[in-house]
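Please decode residue identities from the backbone states below.
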């Protein structure tokens, strides 16, 4: 016979999956659940803790325990695909809002990375199912892609356009950190200030090893997870 807290965990999970407890709403208090299930509060606390550990529930001060939205798993394998392709393959919709796109002088750091003095800087806010998900700034060599200024990257794929110019992204190196959202990013991504963000630095090269892309991406921590597949 399974432990009572596991049965309660499973029943709560069924109610979350069915929408009885909707995403973003609070579930009953520990005292209310203990009364409903005819068990002690420590038993309820164990069941809830399991769901919190799974990212299905989240405890918030002054509000209670809320149902979390399912996280979008961003899989990193040996196949390089665009943000839109990755999201559409998982059955979700994607949208892109271009916040800025301009030519500018490269900083010393970016000169070293992209090996050029002038760059195009593309700043985008990307959405999944109409919810802001990632803030990304992409730098690309201006001498290779000066005509990109005529393109609308709210509709065009950067990776597709690189391929059309005979500079497809053939390899990407990514560096991951976890940081806290500042006031500006919290507002853009519709999260709380100091909430965790996945912070990626991405370095893309074409088949000849020419640097094509340097991107800085900040993903919401509450709606994303990342799976890395390594092959020998």
């Amino acid at each position: 016979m399974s432990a009572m807290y596991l049965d309660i965990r499973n029943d709560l999970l069924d109610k979350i999956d069915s929408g009885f407890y909707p995403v973003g709403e609070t579930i009953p208090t520990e005292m209310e659940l203990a009364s409903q299930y005819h068990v002690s509060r420590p038993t309820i606390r164990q069941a809830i803790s399991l769901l919190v550990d799974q990212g299905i529930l989240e405890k918030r001060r002054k509000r209670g325990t809320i149902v979390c939205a399912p996280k979008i798993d961003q899989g990193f394998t040996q196949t390089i695909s665009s943000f839109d392709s990755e999201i559409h393959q998982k059955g979700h919709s994607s949208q892109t809002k271009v916040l800025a796109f301009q030519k500018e002088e490269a900083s010393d750091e970016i000169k070293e990375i992209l090996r050029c003095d002038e760059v195009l800087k593309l700043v985008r806010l990307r959405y999944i199912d109409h919810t802001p998900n990632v803030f990304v700034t992409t730098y690309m060599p201006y001498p290779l892609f000066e005509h990109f200024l005529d393109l609308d990257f709210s509709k065009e794929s950067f990776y597709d356009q690189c391929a059309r110019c005979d500079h497809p992204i053939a390899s990407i190196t990514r560096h991951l950190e976890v940081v806290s959202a500042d006031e500006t990013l919290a507002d853009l991504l519709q999260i709380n200030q100091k909430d965790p963000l996945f912070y990626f630095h991405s370095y893309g090269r074409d088949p000849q090893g020419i640097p094509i892309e340097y991107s800085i991406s900040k993903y919401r921590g509450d709606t994303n997870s990342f799976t890395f597949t390594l092959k020998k």
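Observation: The two ends are 43 Å apart (CA to CA).
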